[in-house]
Input
Amino acid sequence: MSIGKRLNELKKNELFGRFYGIMLLLLLAVFFWAVFKILTPDNFGTLEKTYYYLQSSIIYSVGACGFYFIVVMGLFDFSIGANVVLSAIIGVTLSKQFGYPGLLIGAVLCGLAIGLCNGVIYAKLRIPSMIVTVGLMLIFECVAYFASGGEKQSLDPSLQFFGHAPGNMILALIAFLLTFFILKYTKIGTYCYAIGSDEYVAKNMGINVNKYKILGFVLLHGFVGIMAVLSVSFGTSMTALTGMATMSRNFTPLMGTFFGLAFRKYGTPVTAMVIGEFIISIIFNGFIALGAPTTIQNVVTGAALLLIVAITTKPAKGAVVK
Output
């Protein structure tokens, strides 16, 4: 077989893999939607409600895209929720004087600053990222409380363009395309994968591991800044929380990231995170429609996620699972 024919065959296999991965995700979304529609036809799954599920899911999809940059390197960050709150409060505060530029630039710059802080402290202290970010989470919660004066910060109705379509779709699409570009066409994406695959080998290849871990944290929290804009625009207000109360905001975007990792082998991590968050939204709202207690919702949602990831992720024989 000639080299040209071989390359064409590889391209066809790649396209088929992407198509297969996307179709599998869409079938999962249809499956869960159908299950809840059958169980509670009057309370779930109308066109209007399904559109609402999509609207709420894209907020977490943006956070999932940011999370992907560090999770693929084997790191974690517990301060995501605290960043959402603090960046939203900073954005709302600045929007009162500078309008949309204050909201967008304030929230994103706050997120980037938090990411740089997290990355540098993690690199300097040389202790697990979970421990570092738990401590920083508590600090950022206190900063958010003092920045808001302990009061709820409400976004002016005239500045809520990103709380509904098409504003939220446009902003989210920019985030998705940026994620795809970074992962596909930049050294940052390549090196993140290399570090996650084998950090020791990456160092021997001359990659500055600490530098790209810090960049991973910066990218994560930059995307969380965008997530903060979407969150406060969708909910119209933000209240500072203390005592680790922001931690619950970490896990929904993380669940979407798991979908991205699971479907990475099909070459569709960004698409997988977007559809995955939609699936999570369907499951969550399905149990609300059923009137299930919050504890049952959490148990079944977590179990469904683990099942999906276990089915779709098949490590190669002899591979080490980190």
Notes: The chain has one domain: 28-311. The beta strands are 153-154, 237-238. The longest helix spans residues 3-39. The chain has twelve helices and two strands.
